[in-house]
Amino acid sequence: MEHLSLRQAVERFVPSGARVALEGFTHLIPFAAGHEIIRQQRRDLHLIRMTPDLIYDQMIGMGCAARLTFSWGGNPGVGSLHRLRDAVEHGWPRPLELDEHSHAGMAAAYCAGAARLPFGVLRGYVGADLVTVNPAIRSITCPYTGEELATVPAINPDVTILHAQRADRKGNVAIHGIVGAQREAALAATALVVTVEEIVDELPPAMNSVVLPHWLVSAVVHCPGGAYPSYAQGCYARDNSFYQQWDAIARDRASFTEWMERHVLARPDHKSFLASLGEAA
Amino acid sequence: MTGWTRDEMMTIAAARMLWDGCVCFVGIGLPSAACNLARLTYAPDIVLIYESGTIGTRPDVLPLSIGDGELAETAACVVPLPEIFSYYLQGGRVDVGFLGAAQIDRFGNLNSTVIGPYDAPHTRLPGAGGAPEIAAHARQTFVVMKASPRSFVSKLDFYTSAGFLGGGSAREATSARGGGPKAVVTDFGILTPAEDSRELTLTALFPDTTVEAARAAVGWQLALADELEILDPPTPNELATLRALNERTSEAHRRPVELPA
Lengths: 281, 261
Hints:
The structure holds two protein chains of two kinds.
Chain A: E1 2-3, H1 6-13, E2 19-22, H2 31-39, E3 45-48, H3 53-61, E4 65-70, E5 74-75, E6 79-80, H4 82-90, E7 97-100, H5 103-114, E8 119-122, H6 130-133, E9 138-141, E10 148-153, E11 159-168, E12 173-175, H7 182-188, E13 191-200, E14 210-212, E15 219-222, H8 240-251, H9 253-265, H10 270-277
Chain B: H1 6-16, E1 23-26, H2 30-40, E2 47-50, E3 54-55, H3 69-73, E4 77-78, H4 81-89, E5 96-99, E6 103-104, E7 110-111, E8 114-115, E9 123-124, H5 131-137, E10 140-144, E11 181-185, E12 189-193, E13 200-205, H6 211-216, E14 223-230, H7 236-254
Helix pairs in contact in B: 1-2
C-alpha cells in the first residue's frame, strides 16, 4: 500500500486500454478519479460499473471508453445519460461497444470475480432478450437438480477505484452507508485504488461495516469531496439539484464540451474543480 | 381541497393495492411515491426495500435516486447489493415488486432497453437494472405506466422483463418463481390478467374517464372485464398526504449541498 496523489495513482494504475471499474452504487462514486482519468486523456478503456451515472457519461463523452459493461444506464430519477446515448445511437465521439447485464447478473459476475471463479450463476434473465444480444450470458444445467440456470462470466477489472469516508495510515479502508457492490469489485480487481475523505491515525472499531484491509489496497489517495456530486454518508449529501442540471448540460455536444473544458480540463485537480462550480460563468 | 391530477390518481390507485406488512421492492419515481403514501396512510408497517440495499426504510422525503442518503439513514438495515438480489429477491422474500417501462404488451411483458433494433437503436433507454429478476421472482408485480399507443404496443421492440410471455401457461414453463403481473396501473384505470389467457383486461376505470378513452390509449384491441369497477376518487387524506410528501421532496431536492471545508 502506498499513499499517492490522485495524479500519480492514475498515471500508475490506469493505462489506456485497461479494464477499469469505478464502483459505488449512487453513494461514494469516485468522481475525482474519473475526472483525473479524463485529464490524463486515457483512451480505449473498458469501463465497468453497474450504473454508469454522470461520471461515465462524462468519460464516454470525452472519448475515454471503447467498451462498457453495465446494468442500468440512466440519470437516476431524471432521465437519460445523453452522452452515453449519443455514443450508442450515433457513435459520438466514438463508437461504444456494450456488454449489458441486469443488476442481478452483474452482481453475480462481481461475486464470481471476487471469489476467482470463472462464472457466476443465477436464476435470472427469464424470457429476456439480453440473452440473445449478449453472447456472454449463457446457461448451465444444475448437476444436482437438472434445472437450467443462467451464467455470467466473472468480472475481474485490472483496477477498481473506490471512494470511501476514511482510511488509516496503514491503508485500512472503512466505508459506511450504502455499500453497493464495492467490496466485490475491490476483491475482484488486480489493483485497488481508494480515494478517501479523511486519513486518520486509527480507525474507530467498525463492526460489520465494510473494511478493506490494507494488504488488499494498492494505493490510498487523500481527496476530500472526491465523490461530489454524489455523496459521502456523514460528510456531505448528494447534490440532487446538480444531477437535475446535468440533463441540460449534457443534452448538447457543445454545451457538454464547454462544461468539461471549463470545469475539468482547465483545472489541475479536484479542489480546483470544486471551486470552479461556484464561479460565475 | 378539490380537483386531482391523473398522476395523483395513479399514485393513489397503486398505493391502495398495498397492504400493511407487505414486503415491497420499490423503484424510483411513481412507485416510490405510491409505497410511501401507503406507509403514511393505511400501511404503517409496510417494509420498503430499495435495490441499493436499504431494507425497511422510512424516508421523510422521496429519494431522487435509488440510493439517496435519506434511504440509508431511515433504514432498518443496509446490506450489500448482491445480497438484495440473491438472498432477498431470488430467495423469494419479496411480496410485491413495482415495475415501469417504456413499452408493455398485452401479456405484461416489458421493454426498458431500446426502441428500434438493439444494434442500431432509434432510442437507447437506460436498460434492465433490477427489472428482469424483480419480474421473475417477486411474488407478484404491479406495473405502473402512462398509456399511449406508443407505450402500450402489440409487439415490443425488446423483451427486457417477462410478464406472461406468450400468454396462457407459458410463464409456468420457465424458472421464474414469482406469479407475474397482478395489475397494471395506468392513467385511465387498471388492467389485470384474464384467468386463462393471461391477457391484460380492463377491470377498473378512474372516475373521470370512459371505456372509449381507455381503448384509444392502448395499441391493441383492449378486452373488457364483464364487470367494470369505477374507482373511488382520491380521499382528502390521500391527496393531502401525497401533496405534502411531494412538496417536502421538491424543497429538499433544491437544497444546496455544503461540502466540508
